[in-house]
Design a protein that fits this description.
Layout lengths: L1 E6 L10 E4 L10 H4 L12 H9 L4 H12 L5 H13 L1 E6 L9 H9 L1
Parallel strand pairs: 1-3, 2-3
């Protein structure tokens, strides 16, 4: 099965499988019922400190990726990562984000870690 990425503001589809929000904060203006989020593992999202740093330094995307990869390498995140990999082995897992450009966000870094 595997992973796919969608913006959380798009309508849920049956093909989404398990819908996992991968943002630290709840998306603005979105009702929880409409979001149809099955899981929200906040511990796998960039820390508040890293998010704040990146918003102040958006041009330093490479450094952001390096720091986020370091956060994802923390031993306490091994189990949540393993859980998502296990889900994706049997069904589609849709990683949901509110960011406007998912390709220039934390999502590709998380996908890389989930695929490792």
């Amino acid at each position: 099965m595997g992973f796919q990425v969608r913006r959380v503001y798009e309508a849920a589809q049956e093909a989404d499988g398990v819908r996992v929000l991968v943002d630290r904060l709840w998306p603005r203006g979105l009702a929880k019922a409409r979001a149809a989020v099955d899981e929200w593992p906040k511990e796998l999202t960039p820390s508040g400190e890293l998010r704040t740093w990146f918003h102040a330094h958006p041009e330093e995307h490479g450094e952001f990726e390096r720091r986020y990869r370091a956060e994802l390498a923390a031993p306490e995140l091994a189990e949540p990562l393993r859980r998502l990999r296990g889900l994706a082995a049997h069904r589609t897992v849709t990683l949901l984000t509110a960011v406007k450009d998912p390709d220039r966000s934390h999502v590709p870094v998380l996908l890389g870690r989930l695929s490792a």
